[in-house]
Design a protein that fits this description.
The protein is an alpha/beta fold. The chain is built from 16 helices and 14 strands. The relative contact order is 0.09.
Amino acid sequence: MRTFVPGYYIIEGPKRKSWSEFTNYSFLLFNWALTFIARRAIINVALGPDEIRLQKPVHVIFFSDDRSEKGSVIVNLLPGKSSKAPTSYYDKLPRFSNTAKRQLSNTKPSNQRYIDSIINEIGLLLEGRSTQEKCRNKQFSIEDIHIKGIERLDDHLANYFKEQMHQKYGKAFFERPRKVQLNFYTLETADHAVLESVEIPNTDEELKPMSERKFVISCMARNQNYMYWLKDLYTSAKHIGCTVIGFNYRGLDYSKGMIWTYKNLVDDALSQARRLIESGVKPENIAFEGMSMGAAVATITAAKMHENGLRVKLYNERSYRSLLRLMIGYIMPDSTSNPWNPLTWLNYVAVGCAYLFLTPAICLLGWHLDAANAWDRIPFAYKIYSVARNHQNPAQPDDDDLVHDSFSSIASLMAQHLEEIKYTHQNGGSLSIEEQQMLADKPESHEFTLDRNNAMNTNPSNHSAPRRFLVDTQSHQQTMHTYMIEHVREMLEITPPGLEAHINKA
């Protein structure tokens, strides 16, 4: 890994001759043109790129549920891009030169005018006169304002921006500590995708040597933008006692590059881990976490690292065994279906037809996304999962409304393994240490349900609602987010903040 400019990191791949790279790139474009419609359809199902909420040039975020919170402001130095087809695809093609990837140069007068408008807007924020969304009648301090994307300006434009900021708002503008630490950076992968990213460190984490620091890499779910997860990521960093990394996959919002198959998403997550390891972080101090599709990506990424002897940790939330099972789960009869109803049998016929036609199509297009196989390759002690499931009322189970509970979910895979282990145990077979651990595990401890009495939540889906609004089905005392925090902290061997203070005092 090398640093192009401060905040812009490049993962270096094997050296290739320019003609080889050109030939490979030309083949990819030709392949993309031939399979555009089919790939577009499968990408929309798996990733939903055109459903993603974009960041705003001046983006206000909140770190609590307190409605009176003023919030913090993130100022994007790059103009926003349209996410609508086909613009989102043509604009996101990777570039060959590093200069082009940085996007904004001083050669265009319009770019300097845009930077001037941003500088002026910062002044309005400080004076309390901004008319941007969620900024009206609010006066922000320097400690509330975060600058994002300066590493993607060319040298002349970056220097111009800094000089103007120094003249107008003082030389201490960039050095003043922020109320919430957000370290935005850009990561270029070995295959030249450009990922907008952020590090959110817990207090004092940055004072430690890299070999002692703990990191959690959060992989985004379908149609999600990491900017809208900053409150969640900040809460995780604060209560786990680590640094949390968020990023957008290539081609989404300010990230650059094309998504061809699910492997591109995995490569993006691997690149984030590789940057950490090449910076001196120990693999055992890294955990991956994700929800839904993000959990599938995190699982496959973690499995790949385990294959190379890198013992990373994994938290898998509300996810599925494979994209194929997820899609077929939409028509698979559920546990309450009447087996003698003709419609139930018609559904099973539809399931067979779906297997017949979808399986080859998904595999040929590179979107089989087999998270179940990857999950099984990770030792039990290095992973944990949670599921949206509530069987307190068997007649009306409140299960995940997107992932078929008994057919598609990772929880169903674990239930299948548990039945196999029980059968072996009951028939006198010997169990491995890992099988004994799985036998002792309580499936109900992983089950959570949406707290539908919480007025703060406006999302009725138990699959996509924020995890702080899901509670355990047994006692309704623990949220899914608290569950994630406690288990990731345990896997990373981090002493809880309160306990650490007690130990130090003693």
